Amino acid sequence: MAIGRYGGSEKRRSLRLDKRFKVTLEYDGNTFNVRTINISSNGVQLPRRNPPSIGTHVKLTITIRNETSIFEGIVERYTKCCVNGVKTTGIGIDIISPGYSEFVEDKIFHKKFDLLEVATAY
Q: Is residue 9 part of a domain?
């Protein structure tokens, strides 16, 4: 088990990155345009001042590197977070749609590897 951000044990299934990507979040007939707080190959954390209930099914339209894909997820947890200096609630969403992990791996993690590969080639 790895050491977490604040010194505790890290129980995550995958690496998360503090990256901001455009997301359209839809649930209960409402639509919100937000940016990710962080993202991993299993899910995302998004800011929501008035979050949906844990267990709520949501639809996410995520844009990464000018490519947009639609996924479904479930709100699994709440966290306290700070976005642009404003304290708010973050919602942890586990993505349940097939293809999400591959989308994120290809658009984020694979791109990082390519940059590292280029940097070490010289």
A: no
Tens digits of residue pLDDT in 61-94 = 999 888 899 999 999 999 998 888 889 999 999 9
Could you tell me the CA-to-CA distances from 36 to 49, 51, 108, 116 in Å, in that order?
Answer: 14, 14, 13, 24
| CATH of residue 103 | 2.40.10.220
Long-range Cβ contact pairs of 74-77 (< 8 A, separation 24 or more)? 75/51, 76/43
In-domain check, residue 4: no
How many domains are contained in the chain?
Answer: 1
pTM of the complete model = 0.78
